[in-house]
Protein: PIN domain-containing protein
Amino acid sequence: MIPSTILPEISYLINKYLSVEVELKMLEDVKEGNLALKILKPVDLTRTIEVIATYRDARIGFVDASLVAMAERLKVGKILTTDVAHFAMFRPQGMGTFEIVPQEVL
Structure:
């Protein structure tokens, strides 16, 4: 699953650190439904604002906060991220903490 708010960032990082070919393959997979693209909903935006306010001192930003909001709504406890520091501090509603995977390769 790929949240819509992170797709541009994922695309950029794949292009920069892997290749255009890998980026195109990922985008084709999203287009074909092999990777589910989840769209930010109004309820997620409400929660995103709450998360930004809660963690204001950490300056987490919209993208990370929206991922927290969508993960809470979709009950996704495993997160693939290079931003281990932020996601380790989050306490998502109803989940305790996120499992950051695969943390050993990040």
